[in-house]
Design goal:
The protein is an alpha/beta fold. The protein has 14 helices and nine strands. β4, α9 and β5 form a beta-alpha-beta unit.
Length: 327
């Protein structure tokens, strides 16, 4: 709760700073001189895995080719994957319709939920894989439903559908459990993705150090806001783990696209094995709505952190006086 509250305040401060500079947050961050940026971030409890000199050197390397990478983003955007095609509770008919629609729009990476029953998981995985073909990516998300041994067993059963990763296979606090799952699934080329429920950079450090995550899923509101997320992204770069932000909640797509841009422009300089999640709901309530073109995030240009909700939406949905609650 403390970190969620800290994120609300910290994100608001970074949003205000970017607005005053008349820049979108991603551009504001990558334009800050390296030494100043490093000084803005709290690196406590990380010196056992990375030194301040390493951090400065790493971010200084990101200055080379920075403008070329920005031009590439302006031209082509940043790769995304779609979450809205495989929610639990969707009928097979709806799953077919949604996957076919997204294939027609050019999507090449799809995520489905798993964990209700072995029979249901196998049937739905077979359906989606048959729809998207053998070459497109299929990710699976268990939302913390399994114990460690169950996760290993169930994913070995699902390996025939060539999952790219299993997301949150067990308790988000169980670093050792994720490490066991990662080790067991490595021979099957199934990565473990987690991080959306991690409370702070210390937990991320442990996940990374123990090889318990192969995909680092930062969340823009779970840890202590922009400052801490940037520290986590640097740690991920140190351990060679790609950042694939979590964006399955209201307004998260608007926020995390900035992080993917920062990662590419300044921190990792890579798009390989990297995608930013996209979920199709409630974007219309934000003044700087996330835009997708050819299955890629369009670079945001409006000043700030894209976190402002439209006034009419606030008036309609505020509880208990909004018109939505009167009907």
């Amino acid at each position: 709760i403390v970190h969620l509250a800290t994120a609300a305040v910290t994100n608001a401060v970074w949003d205000l700073a970017a607005r005053l500079a008349n820049k979108p947050l991603w551009r504001f961050v990558v334009d800050i001189p390296v030494e100043d940026l490093v000084a803005m971030i709290d690196w406590s409890y990380t010196s056992d895995v990375i030194s301040e000199n390493e951090i400065v050197e790493m971010l200084s390397e990101g200055q080379s080719g920075k403008e070329e990478r920005i031009k590439e983003l302006e031209k082509d955007g940043y790769p995304a994957y779609i979450t809205s095609v495989g929610w639990l509770g969707y009928s097979d008919e709806k799953v077919k319709r949604l996957n076919n629609e997204k294939l027609g729009e050019g999507w090449t990476a799809f995520k489905m939920k798993v964990g209700i029953s072995q029979e249901d998981d196998m049937r739905r995985a077979e359906l989606i894989r048959s729809l998207i073909g053998p070459d497109n990516k299929l990710m699976m998300d268990a939302n913390q439903i399994w114990d460690v041994n169950d996760a290993i067993t169930r994913m070995k059963q699902l390996k025939k559908y060539n999952p790219y990763w299993i997301e949150e296979p067990t308790s988000p606090d169980d670093v050792d459990g994720h490490a066991q799952i990662s080790q067991a699934l490595r021979e099957h080329n199934i990565g473990v993705a987690t991080g959306e429920m991690c409370q702070n950079k210390v937990m991320f450090k442990q996940f990374l150090k123990l090889h318990a995550m192969q995909f680092c899923q930062i969340d823009s509101c779970r840890v202590g806001g922009v400052s801490e997320v940037l520290a986590i992204m640097v740690l991920a770069r140190k351990f060679g783990v790609p950042v694939v932000p979590h964006a399955g909640g209201v307004g998260l797509c608007e926020l995390v696209r900035h992080y993917s841009m920062v990662d590419y422009v300044l921190i990792s300089g890579k798009m390989s094995d990297r995608m930013c999640e996209y979920a199709e709901h409630l974007h219309e309530h934000f003044t700087d709505e996330a835009e997708i073109k050819n299955a890629r995030y369009v670079l945001p240009y409006k000043p700030g952190f894209s976190c402002e909700i439209k006034k009419e939406a606030v008036e309609k949905y505020k509880f208990p006086d909004g018109s939505y609650w009167q009907n």
